[in-house]
Amino acid sequence: MVIVLLTACFGVGGAEKVLSQMANNWAACGHKVSAVSIASTNGAYFFPFHDAVEVVELDLATEDEGLLKGITNNCRRLRELRTTFIRMQPDIVISFLSNSNVLAIVSLLFTPIPVIVTERSDPTSRQLGRAWNTLRKLTYPHADAVVCLGSRPLAYFSGRVRGHIIPNSVCPPVELANIDIGNPEVGTRRTVVGLGRLVKEKCFENLIAAFSQLCAKHPDWDLVIWGEGTERVVLEKACRELLPNNRVSLPGATHVPVHHLAEADLFVLSSRVEGFPNVLTEAMSIGLPVVATDVGAVNEIVRHGIDGLVVPPLDVTALANAMDHMMGSQEERSRLGGRARDVVERFSESKIAAMWESLIEAVTEKPMALLNNVQSSGNAQ
To answer: Do residues 38 and 61 touch, judged by C-beta distance below 8 A?
Structure first.
């Protein structure tokens, strides 16, 4: 099968990570896979691609200053996308992120090429702006399928689209399969970790504020926030004002997040907007106890009181209380962290792959599994 995956840019982010994983897995199964981005990183993409994946960067990212300029640039993007898709002759195009989804649908109008678009965030709490919101409402009904990561974002489109829920898969990191989380020697310091882009949507300032309320009560704990982004200066200022004793560090972006999660004792997701946060499932997959805000599909990932704690978004007091409960009890961290590993089975790669294959087969009326089975048999011989 010929599969094209489209996104805005091969940068840092959950959508980009999932796209590269899907592309690599399907390429390894013998499908012909192309990964296309509207913007260009000049080959410096954050997540690696399988050698068999064709990577195409169209370099169409420009500043859309004013209505006329925006219309002109998007017409150019649509023309280039349509030309690219027709050249590739895919059996299916799968698009990631709202703006790219709109462009993919419009560029494929009046062609026989089917398109699946995926919403990676929660449209109930993350709006695109009036123009793009209107375009999304007008175009999504023309997609062959709209994939959301949970029931909350799907409800936003209810009745208007061919909607499906397909979560992200969770794979346990092999090299960390037998690690012991959260049991440091007596006298060693403990760590709360946050991880993600330093942007307003992640609300790391709330995490810093909540931690500042607990410093005196838990003097043996530190906070580390991994990531990079536009809010670094704001967050550094908050650290200086709320925590003058250097109990918080912002070491920057990392290519090996799971290693830093493995060194921590508690993971906190403080976001006000999420889809299906990969970093949350990565933390849970290695048995790290978690506190997370109730956004996107979080309440379908974390079972409150069973394998983590869920608190309302933008509520610093509730966040601090949940963190205090976890930081104050090794027994509670061990109990919730032990159950957190269930996320690997609940969202296993085989289950999610089967959901994707079933949807693609329904849309294209072509069997994916047949080629996978043939490829597997050939490898075994």
So the answer is: yes
